[in-house]
Structures are given as C-alpha cells and as structure tokens.
Amino acid sequence: MSVGLQRLRDDADAIRRGALDKGEDPTVIDRALELDGRRRTLLGEGDALKAERNATSKEVGAAIKAGARPDGPDVAALKAASVEAGRKIEAIDAELATVEAEVEQLLLRIPNPADPDVPVGGEESNVTVRTWGELLPAEQPLTGQTGADAPSDSTTWRRRPHWEIGAALDIIDNPRGAKIAGSGFPVYKGAGSALQRGLINWFLDVHTRENGMTEVWPPAVVNTASAIGTGQIPDKEDQMYVVTRDDLYLIPTSEVPVTNLHRDEILDVAELPIRYAAYSPCFRREAGAAGKDTRGILRVHQFDKVEMVLFEKPDDSNAALEWLVERAEILLQRLGLAYRVLLMATRDMGFVQAKKYDLEVWSPGVEAWLEVSSCSNFRDYQARRMAIRYRPEPGAKPELVHTLNGSGLALARIVAAIIETYQRPDGSVEVPEVLRSYLGRDAIAARD
Prior knowledge:
The structure is a single chain. By secondary structure, the protein is of the alpha+beta class. 39% of the residues lie in helices and 21% in strands. The protein has helices at 5-10, 12-21, 27-65, 73-108, 162-168, 174-180, 191-209, 224-230, 255-259, 317-335, 381-386, 413-422, 436-439, and strands spanning 127-132, 139-141, 156-158, 172-173, 187-188, 214-216, 221-223, 242-243, 248-250, 266-268, 274-283, 302-312, 339-343, 355-363, 368-379, 389-391, 399-400, 402-410, 429-430, 443-444. The strands form 6 sheets. It has an 8-stranded mixed beta sheet. The chain has a 3-stranded antiparallel beta sheet with strand order 7-9-8. A hairpin with a 4-residue loop joins strand 14 and strand 15 (368-379). The longest helix is centred in the N-terminal third of the chain and has 39 residues, at 27-65. The protein is elongated, with a radius of gyration of 29 Å.
C-alpha cells in the first residue's frame, strides 16, 4: 500500500485535498475508508465468533467429562452450534479477503500528497527557481566566417534544428530507425554514437568518482511487483511496453529496477544514505501528443538515461533533494548548456512525487526549453509499497526510508541541445570540452 491505513484514517481530509490538488479522483479515498470500516466490522465479528466457537468446544469437553453421552442431545446441540459458528467464520473470512484485496487496490490509487511548499495548479503554476547561462538566439552575427559555406550576402547566420544538422552530418538517422522499429526509435551513427556513449560514460564517471555513488547496471525489464513498487502500476500502464508472454515490462527508467534493489529489506542505519547511479535504455509507449515535438529526437519511444537513486533517512530527505538537483546542474554547467530549474506544481508533478524539480536546457535551434532531468522526493510513498525500512538503532522498531531519484542526465534531448548550441556556421558541431577526451575529437564535421 502507498498511503498507510492509519494515516488515511487520521488525515483523510488532507489526503483528499492532496488528491484534488493533483487532479485525481478523491472518491477513491472515501471508498477506501468505507471498506476499511467494513473490514474492521468483519474482523470484530470474526473474532467474536471464534471466541464463541472456542467456548462451545470447551463446553463439549466439559459435558463429556461430566458424564454426558458424546451422541446425546446436549452434546449434539453444542456441536451443531460450533459447526454453525464455523460456517459463519468461513463466510466472514471469504468476505474479509475480498474487502482487503479491494482496499489494497484502492490504496495504490491514492496519490502521494504534495509537500506544503509545492504550488497548487497546472503547468501555468510552475515556478522558475533559477536560471543559468546565456540563452543563445536562433539568429546570430557572422564573426570571421570564411570558406565555401560562408554566406556572401549576409552578416548573420541562423542556427538549424538538430534534425537537419544530424542528417547533414549523418550522425542521426530517423528514417532508418522508423524502418527498423517505427517512429520514435532513432539510429545514431558514427560520431553520433560516440557522442551518446561519451555522454553516458562521462555522467557515470562524475557520479561515481565525484558524487560517491555506486554504479548499477540493472535489468531492462521488471516484473509486476517492481512496477507496482515505484508507482508505475496502477497509473502509467498505458505508457509501458509489455512483454506479455512473460508478464514483464520494459523499463521506462532505471529508477524502477534500482529502487527495487532493496524491496522487502530492513537496512541498517549505518548503510544510509545509499546512493546509486545507473545507466539504462528507457522505453515509453506514449512519447507525446501526435504532431507535437515529433520531429528529430525530442520525443522518442526509446532513449538512454543515467539515473540517480537515493535511499535516505527521513530527516535528511529535504537536503538530499537539493543535493540531487545540484548534481544535475553541475553536469549542465560543465557542458556549457543554459538551463532553468522549475519547481513543479501539483498537477504537473506526477502521481507519486511529493516534490519535484525539472531542469530544462535551452535549445536555440528550435528556440525551446527541453526537459533533461526531473529530481523528485517521494518521501515514504514508494518505500511503503516496497517495504523498504531501516532500524534507527540496534533493536529499534523498523521505520520507512525516504526514496528520491533524479535524471543525471537524460538523452536524447541533451544531444539535441548540444548539437544546436555548439553548431557552427559551416555546418560542423564543436564538441564540449569535457567530452573531447571521450570522443577523441574536438569537432564533428561532415567529412567524419
């Protein structure tokens, strides 16, 4: 369960308000409370009947001991009462099992209430916390450009979108990707492949060497229990690719397998915080509205991402979220990409998050902000689903940990932003300095 029954009973109004703030149906909460009441009634009736049956059994034994015939009318009446009590207990147990199963499913459909400092509303209520870097314009003056590609009748040049540059340099091939798998499955070639690989390796190196994270290489599929644990089910089933024969799901992000590493475990306090970095391919069926941002690699069904996953003590999770955002920002700053940090409003943050920041880079070729990282605090919401606990001290009662995650960072929009930010008037693309040793070059040109 995601929201505990006791919390639901104690804070029903706050949880109902939290559901409304996220645009979710609050009647789920009312139905869960109604069934919880029925559950407790059934438990009381069942316990009373079991006590009655036990007392009757003792009366049977006492009567026989006192000389009553086992097949006599008095003993027979007592036995009949015991059988009737057993029949009623079976009926109660059957109804109880049905009620508890429905309560469990309803609890999974109650969203995680947002933190008090999260703005209420939709996309229009998101708050820009800070920005960094220069927002390059699409059109810029020519500065000493020479050669055959230099325009002779203009003093300016206009940045092209990444799909034009990628095709001209033969580093991104969407048509052949569509031929192989369908729309939304790009093919990277040559220096494009090297750029992907270089980014992934650099991200992981920074996270492991500088940020103290443990690298994980997780499976690219998960079972139903894992998908339920992180909140993909029931909520995002339609966005996931399903391996129907084996009841497995292609992962939408490595958050899902990595967070499930400690499902059903009790951690020692000395282990916390646990901080992982993981690369994985990611798969999402619903890549965006038809006709919106579908050109190039802005909305794709398969992409690569390095994810950061944290397990923290509850008192430390607020600071951990800010730390997580800073790790993503450092990567963007070293890449020289202008970005902004948004505090997401309740209806734009997701079902399972308590607080979420989005990091968006400026991509001058398309003149748009592109989301490349989401950093979220789930508090104990996921941990309750997965029964991930820790002991504050030896012998203490286990408590739920807090889980957090953040993209560090997500491709392919990072690739699009690099291509559009670092393109040159002659059609080549400069390689960001931090990636040059990974690619073995300082520029990508058509002759490559």
